Amino acid sequence: MKKPLITLAAVVLFAVFAVTVYAADLSGSWSAAVQTNAGSGTTTFVLKQDGDKLTGTYSDPYGDAAVTGTVKGSDVTLAFTEQGVNATYTGKVDGTGTKIEGTCDYGGQASGTFTATKK
Question: Can you give the CATH number for the domain in which 48 is found?
Answer without folding.
Answer: 2.40.128.120
